[in-house]
Every structure is written in structure tokens, then in C-alpha cells.
Amino acid sequence: MIPVILAGGSGTRLWPLSRGLYPKQFLPLAEKRTMLQATVERVVKVDGAEPPLIICNHEHRFLVGEQLQGIQVGSGGIILEPVGRNTAPAAVLASLLAVEGGGDPVILLLPADHVIRDEMAFAEAVAAGEKLAAAGSLLTFGIVPDLPETGYGYICKGKPLAEDSAFQVDRFVEKPDLATATRYLESGQYLWNSGMFMFKASVLLAEIEKFAPEILDSCRRAFAGRSMDLDFIRLAQDKFEACPSDSIDYAVMEKTDKAVVIPLDCGWSDVGSWRSLHEVSRSDANGNVINGDVLVKDVTNCYLRSESRLLAAVGLDDHVVVETADAVVVAPKGRSQDVKAIVEQLSKANRCEAKLHRRVYRPWGSYEGIDAADRFQVKRIIVKPGASLSLQMHHHRAEHWVVVRGTAKVTVGEKVLTVSENQSTYIPVGEKHRLENPGVIQLELIEIQTGSYLGEDDIVRFEDVYGRQGRSD
Fold first, then answer.
1. N or C: which end of the chain has fewer CB within 10 A?
2. What is the pLDDT of residues 189-213, one digit of tens each?
């Protein structure tokens, strides 16, 4: 069995913590591990599971690699999607890779951003599902509902199978209104659609060819034109961009006669909003979930999170307040799904807050904007031990570097300098340069940029250990 973890979502409903270049699956929201790390560790414990295959956006490739390294788990490959095309193409790509060597394994397809509290119940359901999938079923897991949730799609159970723990799928239904969801709950016949699936690779490919041949054709072309980039599998971009975007539900599961559902009661949540994160987090005696530097007075049933400064709340009930270095969101918990609309406004206005945090992560470390005005900006740069930035130059800006912690190895033109704490160096406009951390502790420096244009795309790379020549990421 090959676990395939889908790590390409954007998590806009958890803005401002989740953003385009650092979405929720890479964040430690419900526990100390990130959601991706928790998902990986959950599936590698399942009997018979191979190393997981990860499918993600190319912009997140180094986050995935770093987080797998952080839990010391190797992957079975990391497929990079140049653009998002939903879950059906991802399932096809995983299946094409799985059958390439002549095998035909069962694939367990999972989103990277779910919380599952009862891992034993999950493992037992997967073991039961593997048998059904190996026999030719296209399997999904339906969450046993405990309230009339209107934010999920539902699955209606059909005829029970001999195993008595699985059912044929009668039909999939869209997100209902409250009255309909209440009827579903009372009937006992409906399950929440979890977005988790199991299938033999060959069966999925055959059903896709029957119901969505254009997806299969585009994925085959993109997969055939792939290239390797370090440990990453890069698809042919133009071929994959031509692929229709569709979910595995719509493309296959709603049309096939092989659909089977296993009811799953495992403390599941897709953590799709601040309200749902409040529900899966540990609260205090007043029903509050508090993270960071937060003071409260007469506050009940709230989710309060501070990332960079003191947050004080008085007289609130049933609200969400989340603060980051560059944004604050305040909303009634019942309307936390609507945060997505704010992100849409930010994106339409081309504001960087939709995609970037003030601290931006790179494979070598991170940088954080401190101050900026016309013709200058100041950044705090952190370089991990042993890491190196690319050999690069800028057409429009000069840079002054002041080391405040650790030791820097700096290449400027033909010179190689060692710059220690409280020392500085200068990079003229147009000069080739490189920054490295040769030490065993974190390197921190303050960078002052001056010039007529200070955008991140004013980078010309000549050499890069991360394979980013000619790229701005």
C-alpha cells in the first residue's frame, strides 16, 4: 500500500496565519507537529505502508522536504504541480507513478491537513479498506456525523456489504442547509465526505479513462515529460496546465459503480475554519483557546491567538481574534468561514498579505521585513547552519550586511570574506555575491537595501545548490 498525501491546498479560511506560500498544512495548529508531519507519522504507522508519496505545489517543495526531515521520515517521492488542478489529476499522477515499474499497488489518498484523534480506529478502517480496494472497489471513508454540519458534503449509504463494516455508495450529496443536515443526521444513513480514498492504481486509471479521459491524457503527457530536480519530480508544465481541474468525487466517484464507503468514527476534523480549530483544540475553564501573549477579561468560548505582540480582549463571547505581525482578523466564530472572502479581496487588490507573511521562508532559512520606505528597506536574515544562498547579483540595489549572531562567509566579486558578530560588509550594485553560514549555530544579520528598485525579482542567479537558477523563489 502506498500512502499519497495531498499537500497542495491554500487554507484561505485560516488567514492570516495560513497564506498562499505558507498554508495551513505546514503549520502547527492543533499540536506541536505541523499538520503535514502529523499526517505522515499517522500513515507510516499503518501495517504494510510504503514510504509516502507527497504531491504539492512547486512553491512548497522545500517546506515539504524540511518538514519530512524534521520527523526523520523519508518519502517515496515528491511530485511538484506547477499549478493546482484539484484531486482527480493528483490521483492519476500517483497511479501513473505507482504502475510504472509493473506493479499495481493499493493507494491510500489523503489530504495533508486533517486532524484524526483516534489513530487506532483510523488504522483499522484503512486495513479493512485495503482488502476492498485490492478486490477492485473504489473506496472512500465517510465520517460518522455528530452534528448537523452544513459545511461538508455527505455520502448516503447504500446496500451493506458482506463485511458489514462497509456499504455501497447510494449517492453523494452537496453541502446541505441546516434543516436538510438535521434530517441526514437523524436518519443515520448519511456520513460526512472526508475526502480520503483507497483504490488500486489500475482500477482508478481505468475508471478515469472511462469518465474523464481528458484528465488522463493530460496527466500522461505531463508525467511523460517530467524531469528530476534534486529529490523532486517536476511535471511538464505546459502539459499539466492543459489538464482540466476536477475533484476525484466529481470525475469518478459519483459516476462509477465501484464506489464503496466505510464509516469512520475517529475524532476527525478537516480544520476548515477558525471555529473548527477551536473545536479540536484544548480549551480552558471558560471555553477559550489561547495561544501566545494574550490577556483576557470576561471572555468566553473564544479562539485568541497572538503571534507577535500582546493581544488583550475584554467582554467577548464566541469570537475569533488572530494576530500576526502584519494583520489581525476579528470575527464571530459562526462566521469564521467568511474569512475566505477577505483573502479574495486581498488577492484582487494584489496585496502581498494574501500570499506572504512578513517572515518569508526559503530553503536556506528565512528573511523578515523590518522597515521600508522610498529607496530603502531593512530585513532580518536568518541562515541555517551549513546553508548557502545562491551566487547572485542585483541590477538596481546595493546591500549592507551587519552580522548580529554567528559567522558569515561572504563572497563579493573575487574576494571571500569572514564576517563575525558586530562586523559588516557592503555589496555594490551589479556585483556577484554569495552569503553562507559555515558554522554550527544560526547566522543572523541585518540587511539594509538601497536603490531605485527593491523587488524580490531583481535577482540574477548564477549558481544555486537548490536548483533555482533563473527562478525568483
1. C
2. 999 999 999 999 999 999 999 999 9
Question: Assign residue 43 a region: left if phi > 0, alpha if psi is -120 to 50, beta otherwise?
Answer: alpha
Q: Using one digit for the tens of pLDDT, what is the confidence trace for 157-184?
A: 999 987 668 999 999 999 999 999 999 9
Handedness of CA 314, 318, 322, 327 (dihedral sign): negative
For the record, the C-alpha cell of 357 comes out as: 507573511
* Cβ contact 46:121 at 8 Å: no
Q: What is the DSSP letter of 50?
A: P
Q: Which three cell numbers stand for residue 1?
A: 500500500
Could you give the CA distance from residue 110 to residue 38 in angstroms, rounded to a whole number? 12
For residues 191 and 155, is the Cβ–Cβ distance under 8 A? yes
> Is the peptide bond prior to 16 cis by the omega test (within 30 degrees of 0)?
yes
Q: What are the backbone dihedrals phi and psi of residue 361, each rounded to the nearest 5 degrees, phi first?
A: -95, 140
DSSP H or E run through 328: strand 328-332
Task: Give the CA dihedral 435, 439, 443, 449, nearest 10 degrees.
Answer: -20
Q: CB-hemisphere CA count at 13 Å for 130?
A: 18
User: CA–CA separation, 56 vs 33, rounded Å?
Assistant: 19
Residue 364 near residue 62 (C-beta atoms within 8 A): no
DSSP structural state of residue 250: I
Residue type, 435: L
**385: Cα separation from own chain's centroid:** 25
Cell numbers for 118? 483516534
pTM higher than 0.85, yes or no?
Answer: yes
The DSSP line for 347-409 is HHTT-GGGT--SEEEETTEEEEEEEEETTEEEEEEEE-TT-BPPEEE-SSEEEEEEEEES-EE
Pick the closest to residue 4 from 40, 45, 35, 41 (CA basis): 40
Selection from 73, 67, 58, 72 nearest residue 467 by Cα: 58
